[in-house]
Amino acid sequence: MPIYKLSINGKEQTVEAPAEMPLLWVLRDLLNMTGTKYGCGLGICGSCMVLVEGDAKTACLLPIHSIQDQAITTIEGLSDRNDHPVQQAWRKEHVPQCGYCQSGQIMRAVALLQEESNPSQAQAEAAMSQVLCRCGTYPRIKKAIQSAIDLSKRP
Ligand code: FES
Ligand code: FES
Asked: pLDDT tens across 62-83, in order?
């Protein structure tokens, strides 16, 4: 099997895997990084959202051969102390219910705020609609995004 070098959360990782193996399974099964969740495997639910070169991508649709030499960030690499403004905001607003979709929600929100530091409601809704929540935490997600924007503005 081919060997791939990946850059994940600022660390180089070497894995042996079939070329078409999705990043989601590389993370979960080969690297034991289970923060990125499996929902649909079809690019629909968004629970497997990660950042690739800062852009939000569904890891279930990214074959390993396509992501070499690209900087990948997962929920585990977002901050050292779980204190990224989005994580702080999520705690402040008590967003999660069952929690299953939440790493995807947080990663999508992080990408949104990197793209646009003060997104309009339409921009936020368009971005966050890419991650589904069966528990219906959408109103708290909306509040948490505003909290994250406020926290990011603090000196
Ligand atoms: S598991 Fe990737 S989008 Fe649903
Ligand atoms: S918190 Fe349960 S699916 Fe979103």
From this structure: 999 999 989 999 999 999 999 9
